[in-house]
Amino acid sequence: MKTFYTTLLALFLGELSFAQPLIVLDAGHNPQQGGALGVRGIYEVDYNDRFVAELKPQLEKIGWQVVLTRKKNETVTLTERVQVANQQNADLFLSIHHDSAQEHYLQATEFLGKKTYQTRTPLGGSSLFISHLNGQPEKSYCLANAIGHNISVLGRSPALHHAEPIAGENRPLLNAEYGIYRYDNLAVLRGTQMPAVLLEVGVIPDKADEAYIDNPTHRKAIEKAIVQAVQSYATECISRSVTQTK
Ligand SMILES: [Zn+2]
User: In what order do the strands lie in the sheet with 180-182?
Assistant: First the structure.
């Protein structure tokens, strides 16, 4: 469905797909390799799938066409995820993940008889990643900046542990206020030709942060923050550039 809004975007900005702008949503991981383990013994992939399933109709409502890299219960490789976005000639790519932390932040625990992990000290918040090897690094940063800004308005702090100078982390922090990092070799960001961002919605081995993102009101607010960032992308990111700090 082409709305007045998307027609305006296409006519005046010219850079988005004429008929209807298209975003590829990528729910990270798969049922065989579920990613991070949450404090309630639930793997990250389930949080990613739920978030993407809720986000998709909201983006469609503002006139974007949404293509998913994988359906729930489907396994696809990182290369296939990139291929979906490039073959569709998508305008934007957004990968949804839920975060963990290095081992020294975690301790073993149990939840309803399931062995799992929890953070030793509170460690929560959202973070965003872009790659300078992506086809559109400046616009990727601009989209990350808009998402990060809108999430910060919710009163949510950025997760800054990925900047710690230790093995497995040490990511250059481009924006400490919004938790935006540069991670050039993330496959789905590096291989995509369109602006691409990876969002870590929250830190699931952290009891408080897991409860926050499991709360439908809070989760919907984060989803709305993303929808508004995508909606403002055309005016904020195509017509003018936002300068990176690093
Ligand atoms: Zn992940």
Answer: 65-68, 22-27, 92-99, 196-203, 127-130, 180-182, 173-175
